[in-house]
Amino acid sequence: ILVMNVLRGHSLPCHRGEYEIGEECCPVCPAGSRVKTDCTEFTSTSCLPCTEGTFMNQPTGRRQCYPCSTCDAGSGLKIKTSCTTTSDVVCEPLEGFYCLDSTEDSCMTAQRHTSCQPGQYISKKGWFPCADFKLLTVV
C-alpha cells in the first residue's frame, strides 16, 4: 500500500513543448499566442493570438501575453523596433542621451550627455565633467 501511494503521488514531468495542468500534460501555444482553454483527455489546447500591445516571445502555457514595454521620451528613450505579437519593443537613447541600464538588446534607462561651455569638451563619454581645452604654444 505504501508503494502504491508513493507511485500515485509521483507524476512524470511533461515533455518539452507541453505544460502541466492538474495531472494532464497539454501542448503549449506557439509564440505570439496564449492559452484560451487547456487540453482535456479528448481535446487539445486552444490558443488565441496576443492582442495589440501584448506579446509572447516563446511557446507557452500561460493564459496572458506580456504587456509591451514603453520607450518614454521623458526618460530619454525612443523606439528602435516596435512591439510585435512575438517580441517586445526595443528602446534606444534619444539624440544627446546615452544608455545607463540595458537588457540584451534594449535600453531601459538613459541619461543626457553633459553639456559643456564654449572652450570646453567632455573628458569622457557620459556625465563626466567638462575639461578646458589647453592651448599649445610652439617655441
Describe this protein's structure:
The longest helix has 8 residues, at about 1-10. This protein has a two-stranded antiparallel sheet with strand order 1-2. A two-stranded antiparallel sheet has the order 3-4. It has a two-stranded antiparallel sheet with strand order 5-6. A hairpin with a 4-residue loop joins strand 9 (about 95-100) and strand 10 (about 105-110). The protein is elongated, with a radius of gyration of 26 Å. It is mostly beta strands. The model is unreliable at about 1-10 (pLDDT under 50). The chain starts with a helix and ends in a 7-residue tail after the last strand. It has one helix at about 1-10, and strands at about 20, 25, 35, 45-50, 55, 65, 75-80, 90-95, 95-100, 105-110, 120, 130. The chain has 1 helix and 12 strands.
Low-confidence stretches: 1-10
Instruction: Please tell me how large the radius of gyration is.
Output: 26 Å
Helical content (DSSP H or I, runs of 4+): under 10%
Note the main sheet.
Answer: 2 strands, antiparallel
**Total helix count?**
1
End-to-end span in angstroms?
Answer: 102 Å
Strand content: 25-35%
Q: What strand order characterises the main sheet?
A: 1-2
What is the string of helix and strand elements?
HEEEEEEEEEEEE
Mean pLDDT reading? 84
Principal-axis shape equals elongated
Structural class: mainly beta
The count of β-strands is 12
Short description:
This protein is mostly beta strands and about 140 residues long.
Q: Topology, pairings included?
A:
Blueprint (H helix, E strand, L loop, with lengths): L1 H8 L8 E4 L2 E4 L5 E5 L8 E4 L4 E2 L10 E2 L9 E5 L8 E4 L3 E6 L4 E6 L7 E3 L7 E3 L7
